[in-house]
Amino acid sequence: MGILNREKEFYKEQFRFINLKKDFDKYDFHPKYFDLSKNFKVKKLLKSLPEKLIAYLGSGDFHYVSYFLIGRFSIKPMLILFDNHFDMNEAWEGILTCGSWVRNCIEENLIRGILIIGANKKYISTDDVFYPIIDYIEDGNGVLNLEIIRKIKAMPVYVSIDKDVLKEDIVKTSWDQGNMNLGSLMSWLKLINVYSKVLGVDICGEPEYDPMMDLINPEINIANEKVNKKICNIFLD
C-alpha cells in the first residue's frame, strides 16, 4: 500500500478513547518528570495503542506524555496546544518535564509548527515567543482568526488540551488557570476538526487524586468529567 493510500485509510478510521493514566506506574511515568533513559519502556506502550487516539492523561503533571504520543506519527503534525502555560521551559539534560515537553518537540523536529491558544504571556520568554514556527493567540475567547484558519486548513494536526486554560468556575485543576470559556474551547475544537486533519488528541488537567476531596467536594470531578465528555464527543461523533 502506498503512502497516500495509507494516509487515506488513517483518516477514515474512527477515534478511540484510551485512559492512559492506568498505565503510568507500569511505564515509570512520574508526576512532573520522566527520565528519558527509560524511554525504551514507553515504546511497548506506544505499539499497543490504536493509531487514531484520544488519550486521557489525568493530571497536568503528566502532560509531557504528549511528547511520546506526537513522536509516534510518521506524518509530522502541527501541534495545536490549549494551555495556560507554554510548556517550553528548559529542563535538566536527559529529563522530560510537564513544563518542557513542547521545547523537546521543537528541538527534536517532531512538529512542523505550533499554534498555542490561551497561554498567559507571563509564562513565555522573549526568545521563545519568536520561534519562527510558533503562532500564539493569548485570548482564546476572541474572534476566530481567518489567517489561522487558512494555516490549519487540510493540515495534519495534533491537539493537546490542558484544562487549566479554562476559567476556574468551569473546572478546577492543579495549576493556576486561564480565562477561556468552555464555549470558546468547543468552538475552536469544532473548527479544527472540520478544517484540519486531526491525527490525535490528548486531554489533561485533572486535579491530583485526593479521596478526601472526592467526599468533600465531588463536584470538582463531575465538572471535569463533563468537560472531558464534551471534548471527546467532538472527535468521536
Q: Could you describe the 3D structure shown?
A:
By secondary structure, this protein is of the alpha/beta class. It is 35% helix and 20% strand. It contains nine helices and nine strands. The strands form two sheets. It has a seven-stranded parallel beta sheet with strand order 1-3-9-8-4-6-7, with helices on both faces. Strands 2-5 form a two-stranded antiparallel ribbon. Helix 5 links the parallel strand 6 and strand 7. The longest helix has 18 residues. It is globular and about 45 Å long. The two termini are 28 Å apart. The model has no long low-confidence stretch (mean pLDDT 89).
Q: What is the radius of gyration computed over CA atoms, rounded to a whole number of angstroms?
A: 17 Å
Count every beta strand, where a strand is a DSSP E run of 2 or more residues: 9
- Roughly what fraction of the amino acids lie in strands? 15-25%
Biggest sheet: strand arrangement: 1-3-9-8-4-6-7
Multimerization status = single chain
**Number of helical runs?**
9
Amount of helix:
25-40%
- Largest pleated sheet: 7 strands, parallel
Kindly report the average pLDDT value.
89
Q: Could you give a quick summary of the protein structure above?
A:
With 237 residues, the chain is of the alpha/beta class.
Descriptive keywords:
about 240 residues, alpha/beta
Per-chain topology:
Blueprint: H1 3-12, E1 16-19, E2 33-35, H2 39-47, E3 53-59, H3 65-71, E4 78-82, E5 95-97, H4 101-107, E6 113-117, H5 126-129, E7 134-137, H6 146-152, E8 156-162, H7 182-195, E9 197-206, H8 211-216, H9 219-236
Parallel strand pairs: 1-3, 3-9, 4-6, 4-8, 6-7, 8-9
Antiparallel strand pairs: 2-5
